[in-house]
């Protein structure tokens, strides 16, 4: 990598020295190198490049960025819809399972004596909590 950068630096230095020597020769002799065909072509080429850089490329970037943004929004919308649908399916399965596991089965008969006593005790406790407690005055 160092060799590549060193060679590039040397080539650019030599080209710059040659360009300065050519300009010095043009100034001293009064002749312009390539005035008939090279410079007009270079002028047209650089004008076309400046139009591309100033107008066409920014327009293309704006246009394609809008297209990309819309595509990303569509993808996010689809993924969100998929997640919502899967969550709904999971919740429906859970609800179905809960319905069948908490369903009162026929033929189970009455509750046992112990369970009736427990429920009666619970009812008494709840009534006691709802009624105001008589606290002795000091």
What does this structure look like?
With 138 residues, the chain is mostly helical. The chain has a domain at 55-99. It has three helices and no strands. The chain has helices at 2-29, 38-101, 113-130. The mean pLDDT is 89.
**Head-to-tail CA distance between termini:** 95 Å
Low-confidence stretches: none
Structural Rg = 44 Å
Biggest β-sheet strands, sense, barrel: none
What's the helical proportion of residues?
over 70%
Number of helices: 3
What's the structural blueprint in terms of helices and strands?
Elements: H1 2-29, H2 38-101, H3 113-130
Provide tags for this entry.
mainly alpha, rod-shaped, 138 residues, 3 helices
Question: Could you write a compact summary of the structure shown?
Answer:
The chain is 80% helix and 0% strand. It contains 3 helices and no strands.
